[in-house]
Amino acid sequence: MAVRSTADIPEAWRLSPRRRLKTLIFKTARVFVVPTLRLLIRFQIEGLEHVPPIGPALVVANHLHNADPVLIIAAYTRPVLFMAKKELFSIPVIRWFVRQSGAFPVDRGKPDRSALRHAEKLLSEGMLVGIFPEGTRSVTGGLTAPHPGVALLALRAGVPIIPTAIFGTEVLPFNGYKGRVRGRGWPQVTVRIGKPFQIATHDESGRRRELDEVAEEIMLAIARLLPPQYRGIYANHPALQEPERRGDALQPAPAGSATETR
């Protein structure tokens, strides 16, 4: 959506003074955080051209490490408000930082309709909402089966889906009981952002699509962005053996495209 002035922005998407302040703080902090991450973990960001300048979208990503939400937030040029496990909100210091990032709690042990309603509200206000479809960190490093909540939210909200892959974090320390993969040398973490796409609510015959097939479509979009060794249960999926149907839009950004690697 091309925006020439604030008058072109739908009323529902206009930021409140509080959100404008938080966005300013985010953009200012990002100027310092991203170069620091480049030095510490050779942080690479690919596909920034796929981040819409305004408007809602559902950011979906694989999950390897506790640091993934922070690194994805740093990678994006707009704040991403993540669903975070409710346990984090019971720890006073961590709760403060999590809330300042805009995250909101979700109960992973059951269908959390309150979290879904809050996510829908944020999307209706033009925000980027982040979710890990797998619901938890992968212990194998590869993709695992998604929870149906991501499909339900995608169908109800009707907003663009931005597939996002993160890899290289599995070798970082401080990953809790999930542990870390022992790596050699200097870590290199990559966040790869794919082209947004819309979820069809019905198939070609007019049948309303099931949650599991929508969730699979979302996971395959993430899988296409990941190196083969991270694709997990989708590694041998027929859709990943065929020529890319979305062209090179979901492929690693070529030289000269909108990347941040220097």
Write up what this structure looks like.
Helix 3 links the parallel strand 3 (80-85) and strand 4 (104-106). This protein is an alpha/beta fold and 262 residues long. The protein starts with 16 loop residues before the first helix and ends with a strand. Helices cover 31% and strands 13% of the residues. The protein has an eight-stranded mixed beta sheet, with helices on both faces. The chain has one domain (17-174, 187-247).
In a nutshell, what does this entry contain?
The chain is of the alpha/beta class.
Furnish the topology, listing elements before pairings.
Layout lengths: L16 H25 L2 E3 L10 E5 L6 H8 L4 E6 L6 H9 L3 E3 L6 H12 L3 E4 L17 H9 L3 E7 L22 E4 L17 H15 L12 H4 L17 E2 L2
Helix pairs in contact: 4-5, 5-6
Count of individual helical segments? 7
Number of self-contained structural domains: 1
| Average pLDDT number | 87
Radius of gyration: 18 Å
Biggest sheet overview? 8 strands, mixed
Which structural class should the secondary elements be placed in? alpha/beta
Spatial arrangement of strands, main beta sheet: 4-3-5-2-6-7-1-8
Helix and strand succession? HEEHEHEHEHEEHHE
Number of strands: 8
Give the fraction of residues assigned to helices. Answer: 25-40%
User: Shape, please?
Assistant: globular
Strand content: 5-15%
Distance between the termini: 29 Å
- Low-pLDDT windows of residues: 245-257
